Amino acid sequence: MALLAVSNLGKQFGGLQAVSEVSFSVERGMIKAVIGPNGAGKTTLFNLITGSLTPSSGSVLLDGRDITGHRPHQIASFGIARTFQNIKLFPGMTVLENVMIGRHIRSSGGFIASMLHLPWVLAEEQRIRQAALERLEMLGIAELAELEATSLAFGQQRAVELARALAMEPDLLLLDEPAAGLNIYETAEVGRLISSIRQLGITVLLVEHDMSLVMDISDEIVVLSFGRKIAEDVPEAIQSNEEVIKVYLGE
Amino acid sequence: MTLELFIQYFFAGITYGSIYAIVAIGFNIIYNTTGIINFAQGEFVMLGGMISISLLPIMPLPLAIAAAVALTMLYGALLEICFIRWLDNPGVLRMVIITIGLSILTREAALHVWDESIRSLPYFVGNEISTVNVLGARVSPQVFWVIGACGLMVAFLSIFFQGTSVGRQMRACAANRKAAVLCGINTRDMVTFSFVLSAGIGALAGCVMSPITSTAYDNGTGLAIKGFTVAILGGLGNSAAAVAAGLLLGIIEAFSVSVLPLAFQDAIAIAILLIILFVRPHGLFGSGTAAGLKEF
């Protein structure tokens, strides 16, 4: 069974059909990319999957379970994490704390127990800290742990956001333009990172404009144009697809 | 002014000051997670005092205080769940008006339950006339209970917000709500927790201050104004600054008695509030540019 199955998904904003009748599925362990010109509905698609927007029609299944219409925090706890095109970190918190926040859905300390500082809460706290540090080490930013997250360079902030998403131990990771604003060296680094994320058994669905990155790392590509899916295939086939070339280069 | 008199005023100042600080921190906790001022904050303090006084005949003092704090927390949770939680994207103004309504509602309910009489808890140690000698000045032992309890609450809160998962989630919710939701944090629960926490610390402050200040059904309003002044004075949302600002206001009030008639004491807080709002609306310790960022 596919990990993520999107079927006939549609979203209407007033008279604008931002996404219409989009269907595709993502198999477990795969890296799948969604590409398309600006305004094709890629970010809207992500917002529909993560519950930030409610679909006008269609359904989203995660591992066979219908998650359509659930609230975003519930969908996150079902196992979908995401990063943003414009990075959203928690200002005033350190890098480590930011990543620890991602960890909490895998921990169990309740409100009353936390208030009373019960011993097992402190032990749990220690485990959360350890898990967060491991993620930072994996991304090679462990030495930044105690710095304020929003004071870092752009590329580093992106790594922190990725570490936070990984700390959630998701089944599916949605990356919204992970290479946006990065130079070619940093982009290559992001490519390596995404491949190593796959090694952890995490399925990746990404939106990206950098074609060399997309063609390099993806197993399959979905192409959107004006909210509709116009192609879905392996990278080589997409590169020679007439309709895709038409959409990108004009008639 | 003699040294004894100075110390006398000073202790009176920090006693009231630490209570103002706790009320202000209550404001800040809710402000940080919701962006609103909960004007029913003073009522939590009143309820803490009143409930513990009512429970005292049937149970020992520490138990009565614990029960009063727990019941007030429950009341805080109920207020949030019944009147705020179900609102879909409520405007700030709408929520503020709701809390003003809740404040009036609570006060009137308290009037019916406890009538207009002024009550108080007994002194925790000794009685009204027992004193501790500090450099020649006579200070009631209850003063140390108040300062100690408020100090402990501040320490407890800072550990809670820095060092526990739930505390960190509440800060995350304050810092970036959207990102918090997508990290799987139920922000509505965090708002409920913030009401519970504010109610709890308010109620405990209400218990320890009751022997000194007495408790009546309409105590809350005055405290809410002082607490609000302190929260603004320190810079909304900043609890360390609220402690400093609370002590400052308490000490200013206490020493003002030596130059102004006692009746002017409350006017001082209001005057300070107005001056701050005109001159430094982001507070004494807040920076203007950072005023847009909310952080505990």
TrEMBL record, chain A:
<dbReference type="InterPro" id="IPR027417">
    <property type="entry name" value="P-loop_NTPase"/>
</dbReference>
<dbReference type="GO" id="GO:0005304">
    <property type="term" value="F:L-valine transmembrane transporter activity"/>
</dbReference>
<dbReference type="GO" id="GO:0016887">
    <property type="term" value="F:ATP hydrolysis activity"/>
</dbReference>
<dbReference type="Pfam" id="PF12399">
    <property type="entry name" value="BCA_ABC_TP_C"/>
</dbReference>
<dbReference type="GO" id="GO:0042941">
    <property type="term" value="P:D-alanine transmembrane transport"/>
</dbReference>
<dbReference type="GO" id="GO:0015192">
    <property type="term" value="F:L-phenylalanine transmembrane transporter activity"/>
</dbReference>
<keyword id="KW-0547">Nucleotide-binding</keyword>
<keyword id="KW-0813">Transport</keyword>
<keyword id="KW-0067">ATP-binding</keyword>
<dbReference type="InterPro" id="IPR032823">
    <property type="entry name" value="BCA_ABC_TP_C"/>
</dbReference>
<dbReference type="GO" id="GO:0005886">
    <property type="term" value="C:plasma membrane"/>
</dbReference>
<protein>
    <submittedName>
        <fullName>Amino acid/amide ABC transporter ATP-binding protein 1, HAAT family</fullName>
    </submittedName>
</protein>
<dbReference type="GO" id="GO:0015808">
    <property type="term" value="P:L-alanine transport"/>
</dbReference>
<dbReference type="GO" id="GO:1903805">
    <property type="term" value="P:L-valine import across plasma membrane"/>
</dbReference>
<dbReference type="InterPro" id="IPR017871">
    <property type="entry name" value="ABC_transporter-like_CS"/>
</dbReference>
<dbReference type="GO" id="GO:0005524">
    <property type="term" value="F:ATP binding"/>
</dbReference>
<feature type="domain" description="ABC transporter">
    <location>
        <begin position="4"/>
        <end position="251"/>
    </location>
</feature>
<dbReference type="GO" id="GO:0015188">
    <property type="term" value="F:L-isoleucine transmembrane transporter activity"/>
</dbReference>
<dbReference type="InterPro" id="IPR003593">
    <property type="entry name" value="AAA+_ATPase"/>
</dbReference>
<dbReference type="GO" id="GO:1903806">
    <property type="term" value="P:L-isoleucine import across plasma membrane"/>
</dbReference>
<dbReference type="InterPro" id="IPR051120">
    <property type="entry name" value="ABC_AA/LPS_Transport"/>
</dbReference>
<dbReference type="Pfam" id="PF00005">
    <property type="entry name" value="ABC_tran"/>
</dbReference>
Automatic annotation (TrEMBL), chain B:
<feature type="transmembrane region" description="Helical">
    <location>
        <begin position="6"/>
        <end position="30"/>
    </location>
</feature>
<keyword id="KW-0472">Membrane</keyword>
<dbReference type="Pfam" id="PF02653">
    <property type="entry name" value="BPD_transp_2"/>
</dbReference>
<dbReference type="InterPro" id="IPR052157">
    <property type="entry name" value="BCAA_transport_permease"/>
</dbReference>
<dbReference type="GO" id="GO:0022857">
    <property type="term" value="F:transmembrane transporter activity"/>
</dbReference>
<feature type="transmembrane region" description="Helical">
    <location>
        <begin position="143"/>
        <end position="161"/>
    </location>
</feature>
<keyword id="KW-0812">Transmembrane</keyword>
<feature type="transmembrane region" description="Helical">
    <location>
        <begin position="191"/>
        <end position="212"/>
    </location>
</feature>
<keyword id="KW-1003">Cell membrane</keyword>
<feature type="transmembrane region" description="Helical">
    <location>
        <begin position="224"/>
        <end position="252"/>
    </location>
</feature>
<protein>
    <submittedName>
        <fullName>Amino acid/amide ABC transporter membrane protein 1, HAAT family</fullName>
    </submittedName>
</protein>
<dbReference type="GO" id="GO:0006865">
    <property type="term" value="P:amino acid transport"/>
</dbReference>
<keyword id="KW-1133">Transmembrane helix</keyword>
<feature type="transmembrane region" description="Helical">
    <location>
        <begin position="42"/>
        <end position="59"/>
    </location>
</feature>
<dbReference type="InterPro" id="IPR001851">
    <property type="entry name" value="ABC_transp_permease"/>
</dbReference>
<feature type="transmembrane region" description="Helical">
    <location>
        <begin position="65"/>
        <end position="84"/>
    </location>
</feature>
<comment type="similarity">
    <text>Belongs to the binding-protein-dependent transport system permease family. LivHM subfamily.</text>
</comment>
<keyword id="KW-0029">Amino-acid transport</keyword>
<feature type="transmembrane region" description="Helical">
    <location>
        <begin position="91"/>
        <end position="114"/>
    </location>
</feature>
<dbReference type="GO" id="GO:0005886">
    <property type="term" value="C:plasma membrane"/>
</dbReference>
<keyword id="KW-0813">Transport</keyword>
<feature type="transmembrane region" description="Helical">
    <location>
        <begin position="259"/>
        <end position="279"/>
    </location>
</feature>
